[in-house]
Design brief:
Layout lengths: L2 H6 L5 E5 L5 H10 L3 E5 H6 L1 H10 L4 E5 L5 H10 L3 E5 L5 H4 L5 E6 L5 H8 L5 E4 L13 H13 L4 E4 L9 H7 L3 E4 L1 H4 L3 H17 L4
Parallel strand pairs: 1-2, 1-8, 2-3, 3-4, 4-5, 5-6, 6-7, 7-8
Helix pairs in contact: 2-4, 2-11, 8-9
Amino acid sequence: MSKLISLIKKGTMTLIVSLPDNSAELAKAAEDGGADAIMVPINPLVKDKKQLISIIGLARVPVGAKLTTEISEPEVKGLQKLGVDFFDFDFYAAPAWLLKMKDAGKIASLDSKYMVDDLTRLSEKPIDGIDAAIVPNESFGRDLTVGDLQQYITICLSTGLPVIVSTQKLVRVSEVPILWDTGAKAIILTDIVTGNSAKSIQAVTKEFKAAAEALKEE
């Protein structure tokens, strides 16, 4: 089983840092800040697997890949052999062979056009989690709203799969308990929250990690 999925199933808030660039330096910063897992963009990986090998070799936490472009089955299996622990992919564009992959964690990403009926379809598929990336592009970076929270609650209640919230909005550290109360099991910190430098990624991740750890004491 995927190490990330095992962490999520332990029942505590899991923190995934999505790197803005395929960089060993940024990966180390995220891990030093307390990330439970790291997710790297797929585009650079296809061009330069040496960076991925370096990241996986240095990381003590699971490393996953965000499949943002069309990619072939041999390429994905090659990434898995390198040590990629999980794949985050667009549910609506996922080929059948991707859903049939074994061992690696499979996280299906929703978008702003999702329908409630899609949640039933998700629960019937051989996937391990849902990335609730449901914020429309024009709302990126804005404050989290009650409407956003209601949608996360609906997604969590409509499927038995672990739900992961991507920080497409400017989520604050103080809002971690609120996201936990929606039923979400993990947060993906994007550059909207962390910024793009190693220093900011480490600092912001450390703050969110402390907030996630505090949930255990409540």
